[in-house]
């Protein structure tokens, strides 16, 4: 009963373990990160194309729900750069819709439902199949879009109504003649403060300091608030907590939003699990991927009814929670509560922040996402991964952000298939000391005629290798003309139906022409496959030598069985002649 209750309320064990010491550290960490995060979450809301208030609402609700129902002690959930950009792209078709906000909250709900569903079907481990090169390329693409995508706010000019980012950016630069110099200086000054302070310390709330300095500069340069756009001009931040607003519900709308929502859901889960895994490994904590999926999903389901925009786990905020001494998931609960208190007490101050300062913050965040040392490392270690990285960046920036990471995943999978489709077959030859050598079988197949040919096939054998497998076996039989063909499959870790089908086809033809096929190093399940395929007349039990602990024991037993059938004048190359002529006695079957 206790375990069942804890699955529904996974925070109960942490609650029972909470002490005065852990609570004090959690409160300190939650308060500290809230000070850092308030300007950041407001900036991400601007990036998503909505009022900064909705970023704060998301931070309040999602951080609490994800902390209580997730798995990680440190992952801070709320608005993030990639989720904000993807949300902005998804909402473009609905920009002029009178009910656009309820559509936005429906989008948040759909993202949450997808994440919960993936958690319930236990899809957590699929995250391991996302290549680092694709995720890094997507992150760099997102950083580029963030750094360059807010230039209209930095210049304080109207944003060109053009969906395609490269064209929109070019048009923004063409309209730069109408720049507000004060806005540009304040925005660049905010970014410069963060770059300078960020080089020396991570414990100072550089975003808060930069935004405060920008607000002070705005008050000096434009005391009446006439020439600089402030947060209140975009959409005032209210001095109240989010109220309940029902998301739009329309099945056709949900169908239209599904592709973009899937992209936000999956990318967000990759981010959250990557962060959680890194911090869990550092502290020796277990991380339940599926529970984290459910926590991330529930946070969005609940957040959608409280006017929240989509988000995910934030690396910077999660790392700060951990570095500042957070002990349990309740540090993120304190974080959500602190953001709520700031909205209630300091809403009027938040409204005085210049929009250009938030654009400067986004410029800083975007540039910091472009990790050049990791790019150099990928280039140095694998050109194939470098190609995946570059392709992902290109698609993210120049095609559509929603397609970016999925293009990278597909490209990486294609390259893996291309690499693994090469069939590895070695020819076995005896050495003079009674051991055996394995040398790569030459292609095209050449060599002397021999009554005995032995090969070893290894690895994961699947359909992409089927053609090469058939061609090699047929060429080997045609060119070398063996009477006895020994195939060692000790290291064939898996064989799909395509490979088995070809193997049986070749075995039938070989058997019909008077040849005998032997298998050695055979796993019990492979022996069952031969039986179920009704191939015992071609591959009888006497021709099957099971896998043994001793590496060549099955092979020696197989060769002993072949020796007694060679006759007086076998056609053999010198190595095999020496082996069989050395008086090797038939070994018992094992």
Can you give keywords for this protein?
single chain; 590 residues; alpha/beta; six-stranded mixed β-sheet; 25 helices
Enumerate the strands of the largest sheet in spatial order, edge to edge or round the barrel: 4-3-5-7-9-10
Low-pLDDT ranges: 582-590
> What share of residues is helical?
55-70%
**CA radius of gyration:** 32 Å
CA-based shape:
elongated
The main sheet comes to: 6 strands, mixed
CA-CA gap between termini = 51 Å
Give the mean pLDDT.
Answer: 90
Counting structural domains, the number is 2
Classify the beta-strand content into a percent band: 5-15%
Question: What's the count of strands?
Answer: 10
Structural class: alpha/beta
Number of helices: 25
Summarize this structure briefly:
This protein is an alpha/beta fold.
Q: What would you say this structure looks like, in words?
A:
- The protein is α/β, with parallel strands linked by helices.
- It has two domains: 22-234 and 244-416, no CATH class; 425-581, 2-Layer Sandwich (Transcription Regulator spoIIAA).
- 61% of the residues lie in helices and 8% in strands.
- The protein is built from 25 helices and ten strands.
- The strands form three sheets. It has a six-stranded mixed sheet, sandwiched between helices. The protein has a two-stranded antiparallel sheet with strand order 1-2.
- Helix 13 (251-283) packs across helix 14 (289-304).
- The relative contact order is 0.14.
- Mean pLDDT is 90; it is low at 582-590.
């Amino acid at each position: 009963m206790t375990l069942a209750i804890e699955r529904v309320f996974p925070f109960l064990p942490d609650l029972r373990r909470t002490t005065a010491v852990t609570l004090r550290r959690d409160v300190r960490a939650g308060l500290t990160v809230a000070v850092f995060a308030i300007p950041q979450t407001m900036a991400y809301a601007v990036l998503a194309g909505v009022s900064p208030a909705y970023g704060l609402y998301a931070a309040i609700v999602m951080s609490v729900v994800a902390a209580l129902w997730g798995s990680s002690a440190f992952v801070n959930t709320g608005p993030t750069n990639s989720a904000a950009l993807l949300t902005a792209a998804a909402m473009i078709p609905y920009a002029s819709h009178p009910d656009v906000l309820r559509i936005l909250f429906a989008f948040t709900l759909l993202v949450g439902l997808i994440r919960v569903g993936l958690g319930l079907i236990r899809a957590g481990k699929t995250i391991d199949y996302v290549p680092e090169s694709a995720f890094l390329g997507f992150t760099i693409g997102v950083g580029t879009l963030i750094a360059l995508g807010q230039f209209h706010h930095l210049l304080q000019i109207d944003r060109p109504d053009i969906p395609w980012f490269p064209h929109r950016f070019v048009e923004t630069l063409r309209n730069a003649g109408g720049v507000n110099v004060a806005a540009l200086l304040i925005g660049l000054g905010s970014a410069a403060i963060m770059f300078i302070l960020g080089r020396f310390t991570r414990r100072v709330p550089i975003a808060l300091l930069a935004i405060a300095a920008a607000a002070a500069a705005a008050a000096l340069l434009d005391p009446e608030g006439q020439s600089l756009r402030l947060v209140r001009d975009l959409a005032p931040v209210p001095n109240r907590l989010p109220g309940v607003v029902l998301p739009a519900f329309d099945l056709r709308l949900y169908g239209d939003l599904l592709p973009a929502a899937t992209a936000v859901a999956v990318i967000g889960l990759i981010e959250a699990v990557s962060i959680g895994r890194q911090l869990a490994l550092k502290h020796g904590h277990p991380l339940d991927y599926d529970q984290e999926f459910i926590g991330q999903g529930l946070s969005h389901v609940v957040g959608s009814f409280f006017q929240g925009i989509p988000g995910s786990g934030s690396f910077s905020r999660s790392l700060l929670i951990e570095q500042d001494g957070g002990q349990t998931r309740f540090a993120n609960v304190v974080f959500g509560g602190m953001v709520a208190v700031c909205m209630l007490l300091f809403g009027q101050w938040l409204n005085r922040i210049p929009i250009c300062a938030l654009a400067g913050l986004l410029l800083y965040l975007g540039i910091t996402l472009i990790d050049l040392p990791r790019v150099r490392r990928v280039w140095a270690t694998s050109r194939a991964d470098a190609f995946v990285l570059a392709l992902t960046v290109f698609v993210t920036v120049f095609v559509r952000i929603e397609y970016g990471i999925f293009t990278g995943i597909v490209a990486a999978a294609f390259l893996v298939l291309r690499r693994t489709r090469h069939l590895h077959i070695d020819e076995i030859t005896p050495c003079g000391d009674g051991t055996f050598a394995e040398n790569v079988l030459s292609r095209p197949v050449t060599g002397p005629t021999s009554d005995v040919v032995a090969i070893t096939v290894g690895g994961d054998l699947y359909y992409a290798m089927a053609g090469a497998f058939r061609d090699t076996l047929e060429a080997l039989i045609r060119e070398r003309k063996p009477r006895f063909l020994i195939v060692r499959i000790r290291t064939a870790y898996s064989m799909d139906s395509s490979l088995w089908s070809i193997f049986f086809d070749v075995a039938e033809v070989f058997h019909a022409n008077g040849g005998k096929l032997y298998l050695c190093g055979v796993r019990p399940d492979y022996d069952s496959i031969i039986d179920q395929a009704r191939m015992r007349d071609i591959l009888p039990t006497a021709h099957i030598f099971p896998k043994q602990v001793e590496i060549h024991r099955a092979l020696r037993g197989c060769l002993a069985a072949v020796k007694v059938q060679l006759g007086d004048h076998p056609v053999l190359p010198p190595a095999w002649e020496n082996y069989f002529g050395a008086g090797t006695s038939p070994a018992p079957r094992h």
